[in-house]
Q: What sequence folds into this?
């Protein structure tokens, strides 16, 4: 699963040391981070980038991160992360962070669908989950489009909204909602 993934418009390649500038630009940009968290300082983003790189090589994996690259122009559009839940085996969080110019164009839909195809093909993975700020309507629409279901929360206030997607639900939906699964290598 740590390898490249392909969709009709995207090449998702594993994060590598040369992606430091892109990673830091995303995490320090207030337009990108407005529905996620306060932007990081450049120094905090550099530390986080180093940690992500180190976690990618640990087995069993603590996380995987891919860069979303346009297959048409070769532009790096953002990143996607998969983080296994240490408290719930078979469950993992997924998140996508897109450059402001790439938001609202279906890239996150393609990337998460490609990841769901791959991780749900593995028998140990049974659930993906995600979260977003309550005022992020684009993220809520994305979750519904992909078939994620809201997770009821007992917390009031600005806590993130959580969504989950079970393997069985994805398998039943996949053939009717999207085109054939992307090729992976």
A:
């Amino acid at each position: 699963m740590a390898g490249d993934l392909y969709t009709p418009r995207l090449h998702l390649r594993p994060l590598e040391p040369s992606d430091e500038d892109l990673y830091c630009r995303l995490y320090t940009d207030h337009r990108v981070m407005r529905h996620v968290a306060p932007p990081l300082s450049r120094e905090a983003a550099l530390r986080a980038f180093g940690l992500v790189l180190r976690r990618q090589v640990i087995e069993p994996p603590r996380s995987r991160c891919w860069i979303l690259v346009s297959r048409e122009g070769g532009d790096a559009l953002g990143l996607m992360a998969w983080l296994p839940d240490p408290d719930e085996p078979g469950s993992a969080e997924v998140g996508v962070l897109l450059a402001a110019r790439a938001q609202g164009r279906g890239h996150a839909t393609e990337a998460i669908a490609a990841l769901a195809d791959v991780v749900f093909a593995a028998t140990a993975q049974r659930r993906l989950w995600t979260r977003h700020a309550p005022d992020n309507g684009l993220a809520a629409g994305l979750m519904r489009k992909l078939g994620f279901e809201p997770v009821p929360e007992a917390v009031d206030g600005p806590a993130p909204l959580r969504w989950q997607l079970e393997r069985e639900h994805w398998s039943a939906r996949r053939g009717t909602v999207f085109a054939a699964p992307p090729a992976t290598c």
User: Anything to note?
Assistant: The first helix runs from residue 20 to 28. Residues 176-185 have pLDDT under 50 and may be disordered. The two ends are 9 Å apart (CA to CA). The chain has one domain: 5-177.
